[in-house]
């Protein structure tokens, strides 16, 4: 794989699983931009911020945070001030606040600049990278040669998220997860900057009845075409 595969869509569509497996199968790097916004959110929470914080306060905490993203699809890592935060960034506190943090324009500008640097490092010398997020095909890499947008109904996505939570040892209540999925969809799709939507030239795949294996097979075909 050469260049960027842009993988967008809401949570629970199997985006992360498929993106990592695609990157592995194609010997490409992998970037989880959601993990970056989550780590920035953890930094804001650790600075004592929460609902009610101003955009300036959030921006200062999130932008001042020292984040490092490891781009190996076999073992992607994310650190905050040198600490591995891959566990805490999936917890309910971060999940509940991340849409507010990622809606702050200064935070997005900073994260996109960092993403561009990571992407340049991976593809600059002829390599490939699978980049997953909400705005990759629309804002971060609008000229990506392959753009994919995964969707699924909120119920299916909440059920998938619930299974992931259980596997990771987090308590999962389907009603709460569904409410969270719908709330984040609403916030992510209606924000002023870089709202979530499918790029006009993205391949839209509805994963309600498509397994991760089936999506992966389709993408591998497209990548090698
Ligand atoms: O993909 P994940 O669920 O980890 O993303 C967490 C949150 O980060 C999303 O709900 C969204 O608010 C934000 N995000 C974003 N832009 C991206 C990736 C994630 O705004 N490119």
Task: Please give a structural write-up.
It contains 9 helices and 8 strands. With 225 residues, it is α/β, with parallel strands linked by helices. It has a single domain, classed as Rossmann fold. The strands form 2 sheets. The chain has a 5-stranded parallel β-sheet, sandwiched between helices. A 3-stranded antiparallel β-sheet has the order 3-4-5, with helices on one face. A hairpin with a 6-residue loop joins β3 and β4. It is globular and about 50 Å long. The site of cytidine-5'-monophosphate has 13 residues, from α2, α4 and α8. Cytidine-5'-monophosphate binds next to α2, α4 and α8.
* Main sheet: strands, sense, barrel: 5 strands, parallel
Low-confidence segments, ≥5 residues, pLDDT <50? none
Rounded to the nearest angstrom, the distance between the terminal CA atoms is: 11 Å
**Strands ordered across the widest β-sheet:** 2-6-1-7-8
Helices and strands in order, then pairings?
Elements: E1 3-8, H1 15-25, E2 29-32, H2 33-46, H3 55-64, E3 67-70, E4 77-80, E5 83-84, H4 92-102, H5 105-123, E6 128-133, H6 136-140, E7 146-151, H7 154-167, H8 174-190, E8 203-206, H9 212-224
Parallel strand pairs: 1-6, 1-7, 2-6, 7-8
Antiparallel strand pairs: 3-4, 4-5
Helix pairs in contact: 1-9, 2-3, 2-4, 2-5, 3-5, 4-8, 7-8
This protein binds cytidine-5'-monophosphate (C5P).
